[in-house]
Amino acid sequence: MLNIKELYCIVEDEINSLKISKSPKNLYDPISYIMNIGGKRMRAILLLLSNQIFSKDLNLALKPAIGIEVFHNFTLIHDDIMDNAPLRRGVSTIHEKWDANTAILSGDTMMIQSYQLMLNTPEKYLSEVLNLFSDTAVSVCEGQQFDMDFEDVQQVTLQAYLDMIEQKTAILLATSLKIGAIIGGSSKEDANDMYEFGRNIGIAFQIKDDLLDAYGDPKKFGKKIGGDIDANKKTFLFLKALELCSTTDKEKILKLFDSKANLKNKKNQVMDLYDKYEVYEVSNTKILYYHDLAIKHLNNVSGENKEPLYDFANQLLKREV
Q1: CA–CA separation, 61 vs 121, rounded Å?
Q2: pLDDT of 181-236, one tens digit each?
Q3: What is the pTM of this model?
Q4: What is the C-alpha separation between 19 and 1, in angstroms, rounded?
Q5: Helices (DSSP H) in the chain: which residue ranges?
């Protein structure tokens, strides 16, 4: 049984061995750039962790795992363009280092490459895996559209937000785990429990991401702290603050998120309101709720070698990046 660090090394070696074309240079250099600026490789590792619960032949799942990682990085390129984000993993985003048109085209190429890698799935599982992967790809795009739509409307319910992050973030984690189980020859029940483990841990992960965006250490987080506030994003923290605050403070926070003037002062005012209503503590409680749901589904999965997944779920509660 391989642990997370060992699987990380395997995934990194496989990514480094990817045959990325050299010409045209401005198409493929951004792909090499995004794939080699680091990252947790979480989705690929989760696929392999799930697979080794049910199979001893990790090689059958390796190319699909890299396919998941390539697809994830494609979504990051396009997300950064739409968010006008200057940094990714502590360095310039592709649209900043090159330009938006280059970033779009390189991202499109990566999406196609992800399918080419996924085609390495063993034939007996190929149809099921491709159907699941395709459905998930559509859901990720739907989640991103909901995320953008939320920026243009004043009222968004907390449940609508949770549904959005399920599609945008959690489903790809869930699918990674389920694909690993399928290729490993698991039962349908175990594959579904792996999916639910990933879905719940994915929601917890995104709420943690929202929390770190506001409260994280900029030296560790790798992205601009307070970026969601600057962009008027309706995160879990923002929506929870609206639920908790007084009528006067609700009007204040809505006004702050409707204005783009004096961003530095705006950020401080928003953080003061978050602190006033203990949004940090409330968010951590919600993270723990979804973490516990995920663990219940992992407990249901038959087989051994689940310890690394328990470790992964527990590391989520401590992560700073």
Answers
A1: 7
A2: 999 999 999 999 999 999 999 999 999 999 999 998 777 666 677 888 888 889 99
A3: 0.92
A4: 28
A5: 4-16, 25-35, 42-54, 59-83, 94-97, 100-118, 123-150, 158-165, 171-183, 188-215, 218-221, 227-230, 236-244, 247-256, 263-276, 279-300, 307-318
CA 202 to chain centre: 7
CA atoms within 13 A of residue 255's CA, in its CB half-sphere = 9
Query: What's the pLDDT score for residue 225?
Result: 78
User: How far, in Å, CA of 150 to CA of 157, rounded?
Assistant: 10
For 148, the token pair is 């953008």
How much is the pLDDT for 157?
Answer: 94
Query: What are the two backbone dihedrals, phi and then psi, of residue 186, each rounded to the nearest 5 degrees?
Result: -70, 165
Count structural domains, the chain: 1
Write the pLDDT tens digit of every residue in 18-28: 989 989 999 99
CA distance 247 to 87: 36
**Beta bridge mates, 91:** 88
Q: What is the pLDDT of residue 261?
A: 59
Q: What is the residue whose two structure tokens read 């992560």?
A: 319
Q: Domain limits at 288?
A: 4-318
Alpha-carbon gap, residue 52 to 73, rounded angstroms:
24
Query: Residue 134 above 90 pLDDT?
Result: yes
More confident residue, 219 or 143: 143
- The CA distance from 255 to 269, in Å, is 11
- Nearest one of 70, 31, 68 to 46, comparing CA atoms: 68
CATH code of residue 272: 1.10.600.10
